[in-house]
Amino acid sequence: MYFLWYLLIGLVAGWLANLLVKGHGSGLIINLIVGIVGGILGGWVLSLFGLIAVGTIGSLIASVAGAVILLWIARAITKPKKGASR
User: Fold this and answer.
1) Which of 1, 11, 22, 76 is the most exposed place for a label (fewest CB within 10 A)?
2) How far apart are the first and last CA of the chain?
3) Domain containing 52: what range?
4) CA–CA separation, 16 vs 39, rounded Å?
5) Number of folded domains that form the chain
6) 53 lies in some domain
């Protein structure tokens, strides 16, 4: 059952992070991947500061923060397409 919660939190976190960074979602699978990887990254970053995400809301906040960091890193290392503006 916990696995389903992790997937749901990852999906919501990826969707929220895409809204914050890009202004729109990127699709179900991409949002899910970004949210789950963001959750891992967010938990790691919080642990560097001696903090732990507790509960569903804490996990969601850590996942969104990690997903936003992940999207910023991805945007910084990828080149923009010709004619596309940031």
Assistant:
1) 1
2) 40
3) 28-75
4) 13
5) 1
6) yes
